[in-house]
Amino acid sequence: MVPSVLSLGYHAYRVLPVTVEVHLLPGTLGMQILGLADSALKESRERIRSALLNSGYSFPVKQITVNLLPADIKKEGGQLELAVLTGILVASGEISHGILDRHIFLGSLSLDGSVRDTPRLVSALLHAAKYEKRIAVIPAEAADMAAMIPGLRFKTLQAIEELSRLNDLEIFTGKEQLSPLTGTEVTFDQILGMEREKKALALAVAGRHHTLIMGEPGTGKTVLITAASSLAPPLTTKEKLESSEFYSLAENSSTLIQAAPFRSPHHTSSDAAVIGGGAKPRPGEVTLAHNGFLFLDELIQFQTRTLQALREPLENRTVHIARAQEKVVYPADFTLLAASNPCQCGYLFSRSGRCNCSPIKRLSGIGKISGPFLDRISIELDVQKQTTLQAGSLSHTWYREKVLEIDERIRSRNGKRGNNSLNRAQLMEHLQGSAEHRLLEDLSRRFSLSPRGQIGTMQVARTLADWNGKDKIGEECLEEAFQYRSIRLLAMSVFSEAA
Ligand SMILES: [Zn+2]
């Protein structure tokens, strides 16, 4: 029987399950590796031979053919070496075939037969935790890292001699570590008043609605958004592992993501940095924000190209990156929280200050985001400078409890987080009755909402009904949802003035 050994490699910044098959054929002494291995792995022949001989095993005097499957995808990752070596030992009868079904082999080799850690191994370990029926066999050097991955079962190897008694090695299980409290968290309690804005952002977090806040400088847009991100419900273990896997590959970090990611690329970032891509495809900020938030500050300063490219992940929650040789899909299920001045001087929508931008300048700013981009935003909020400051009556803790309560409600109804994936037909069923249908049509006309924009507003209305503990969307929820469409009205007035 041809041994088939499971390992994990990498391809295009994703973890790739790799099956290693080893064939021993009579003939000349030699070894070839088939199946698009990267050059490092192709050069591992000598290391494998030397490791075997230095550990008291024999190197088969046969023609060794190693097949890496799937055959047509390029594979990277030095940690495949241990699997190749294990396959050779099983094929030559040095160790028992029976160990293969229960384990995943991860590690590189040194000439003396010791098993070594590799860069980015943490991504493979995070992925290995998804295999409930398999135990990861890993370098002893990586034990501390593995111990922090919830649910990962693993055995450690110092050297390849231990492979012959693999069944007797102790099994460890990774445990979730509590993250230390930082104590520097920004909260709503630091912002006086602004109850309308706080509620809108709490809705955005609970329902996962893309949100844009516009207003003059000094209205606290950034603080509001930073504080809102800390309302996010805790991540499930599955979400933590998923987010950490991408982080570790893209950022070369070995920290486990504990809370909803908050990414804030600068407006000068290239579209490849924000969306993903480049000569060798890699995930961008939208993927690093997966399961969390993408904060774009000074939205109208971003390149038009970047804003156009954002439309796909905003709508489909994935990004497709096409290059000459391959297509890669990365997850991008984030909530957009964007803030911006409405124009260069910042006072375009202000009731207290005067905008001194030229009509052309005004159009180039707000014009960049109105239309298709704004259609993919579900909550548009203009903020005004407060004239009287008053302490908010609701605390950050109150909002956080509210978000948790809505999240529970939504998950038990939709089977997943957020109301942002409900389609038109589903949303129509949530409307209370014919009065709501009429009101929706009427308001959509008044606000010039496209069919896509209408779905976004109905999703917000659904979250408002959840806020109120209602099963159906009534008139009051619809009316309130349309109040969060104020930017398009202000933008329309700028356009009609310029015309
Ligand atoms: Zn201005």
How would you describe this protein?
The strands form 6 sheets. Strands 12-15-18-11-19 form a 5-stranded parallel beta sheet, sandwiched between helices. A 4-stranded mixed beta sheet has the order 1-2-4-3. It has a 4-stranded mixed beta sheet with strand order 5-8-9-10. It contains 19 helices and 19 strands. Helices cover 38% and strands 18% of the residues. It has 2 domains: 4-173, Ribosomal Protein S5, domain 2, CATH 3.30.230.10; 188-498, P-loop containing nucleotide triphosphate hydrolases (Rossmann fold), CATH 3.40.50. With 499 residues, the protein is of the alpha/beta class. Helix 12 (359-369) runs antiparallel to helix 19 (486-498) and helix 16 (434-446) runs parallel beside helix 18.
Q: Biggest β-sheet: count, sense, barrel? A: 5 strands, parallel
Q: Give the structural class.
A: alpha/beta
Do you know the CATH topology of the largest domain? Answer: Rossmann fold
The overall strand count is 19
**Mean pLDDT over all positions:** 91
Q: Tell me, what's the shape? A: elongated
Total count of helical runs of at least 4 residues: 19
| Helical content class | 25-40%
Number of domains: 2
Distance between the termini: 78 Å
Main-sheet strand order equals 12-15-18-11-19
CATH architecture assignment name of the largest domain: 3-Layer(aba) Sandwich
Could you list the spans in which at least 5 consecutive residues all have pLDDT below 50? none
Radius of gyration: 28 Å
The CATH superfamily of the largest domain is P-loop containing nucleotide triphosphate hydrolases
- CATH class type of the largest domain: Alpha Beta
What ligand molecules are bound, each kind once?
zinc ion
Beta-strand residue fraction: 15-25%
